[in-house]
Design brief:
The chain is α+β, with helices and mostly antiparallel strands and 66 residues long. The chain is built from two helices and two strands; from the N terminus they run αββα. The protein is 42% helix and 15% strand.
Length: 66
């Protein structure tokens, strides 16, 4: 089972390789550690930047838990 940081790293990798057009991305369920939303591909870089920022700090406090 992935810990919260591994889960965010996996999400970052999936988004990085995702090639879609006119996609509404939502990761805002109560069970997600970090609520995210974006319109892809136009907000892909901002979404990746947010994930990079949160995963590089490695602090548990900004993450939700379920």
């Amino acid at each position: 089972m992935l810990d919260p940081w591994e889960s965010l790293q996996e999400l970052k990798l999936m988004i990085k390789v995702l090639d879609v057009q006119n996609c509404v991305f939502r990761n805002n369920h109560a069970s997600n550690y970090l609520p995210l939303k974006a319109n892809l591909p136009s907000e892909k870089e901002a979404l990746l930047a947010t994930l990079e920022q949160r995963t590089s700090k490695n602090e548990e406090s900004p993450l939700s838990s379920f």
